[in-house]
Amino acid sequence: MATLFDHTIINGMSLENRMVRSATWEGMCDPDGRPGQRLAPYYRTLAEGGVGLIISGYTFVRPDGKQLPGKMGIHDDAFADDFKKLTRTVHEAGGKIVIQLVHAGGQANPKATGTRTVAPSAVKVDQFPEMPEELSVEGIHDIIRAFGDGARRAKEWGFDGVQLHGAHGYLINQFLSPQTNLRRDDYGGSVENRRRFLMEAYQEVREATGSDFPVMIKLNIGDNLEGGLDTEEALLAVNALSDAGIDAIEVSSGTSASGDKTPARKKINRPDREAYNLEMACLAKKAAACPIMSVGGFRSWEICEKAVSESGLDYIAMSRPLIREPDLPNQWRQGNRSPARCVSCNSCFGPGLEEGGIYCVPEKKESSGKNKSE
């Protein structure tokens, strides 16, 4: 029977356990996307904390695909030394790191990019800051090539694999969604056409990196949004990716416009609110031959262990708990099975916007109060 601390392998990448640090924007890069001085030490702390695999913060493949400030970019060969330092730091600490590649599409920030946003269609939806410009077919092909170029750099710069961001309302998800893709050419209309961008981006990345390099995807198995991507169509994409040779799929759901069912839900303060994408992940497991990861509200060792041993998932992924307790995997491995101390308040993202780096705000307040009392 599988357990949380099994040794596993994904296309030659050896992992010490089934715990994954899900991609998390850290806000620690220069305005052009070059890794800042705080980033490598931050990743060292995660690696030393014992997580089996680190997936980097979402990294734009072209400057017009940038969303938040301090976001990583992998569009420029001039960043090679900085990224090699980052991967070397993780490896020296005994960790493995995969970089997540993204183009934010209509969710890009025009104030950050200085350009008009682009998307599959010129449609204004709640998650877009402005009416985007519809991509031409040539523009689509340019972005697909940018994904391939980013993957090539990732391999050259020492990353252990790449993950495409096909969730949370970003460009790949926008092409999949009938709400944001109103095209009537080869990239829109039918379910098959709406996943063409995804499949061509995957093939471009695979060709750029080779068959022996892990290529994964984070995929919405439902946008939790009226008119958005539904579970049935998402599972067809899972099946197509599996047939094409994807190495692992991380299951998520929701967009920033999905109300109380966004990707990072609040008030995960009791067991029945945990693992809110688990059911979707189990459906994906049935539709795919590759390993399946599930993210979303994992807080308790017991629920993580059951997801692996009883539900049959291959990996569980966490984000916010590892901001507060980067050593949580080591704690659980050593026998301290207390739940994560994360209170799911999402305050950790505020410092990323205001101070140039995320951290757990409640923990800092507790530490400051403790110091004062001493």
Keywords:
single chain, 374 residues, alpha/beta, TIM Barrel, two-stranded antiparallel sheet, 14 helices
Name the CATH superfamily assignment: Aldolase class I
Classify the fold: give the CATH topology.
TIM Barrel
Largest sheet: 8 strands, parallel, barrel
Name the structural class.
alpha/beta
Portion in helices: 25-40%
Radius of gyration: 19 Å
Mean pLDDT: 96
The CATH architecture term is Alpha-Beta Barrel
Task: Please provide a written account of the structure.
With 374 residues, this protein is of the alpha/beta class. It has one domain: TIM Barrel, CATH 3.20.20.70. 36% of the residues lie in helices and 14% in strands. The strands form three sheets. Strands 3-4-6-9-10-11-12-13 form an eight-stranded parallel beta barrel, surrounded by seven helices. α8 links the parallel β10 and β11. The mean pLDDT is 96.
Short characterization:
The protein is 36% helix and 14% strand.
Topology:
Elements: E1 8-10, E2 13-15, E3 19-21, H1 39-48, E4 53-60, E5 72-73, H2 80-92, E6 97-102, H3 110-113, E7 118-119, E8 133-134, H4 137-156, E9 161-166, H5 171-176, H6 191-194, H7 196-209, E10 215-220, H8 231-244, E11 248-252, H9 278-287, E12 292-295, H10 301-309, E13 315-318, H11 320-324, H12 328-333, H13 349-354, H14 361-373
Parallel strand pairs: 3-4, 3-13, 4-5, 4-6, 6-9, 7-8, 9-10, 10-11, 11-12, 12-13
Antiparallel strand pairs: 1-2
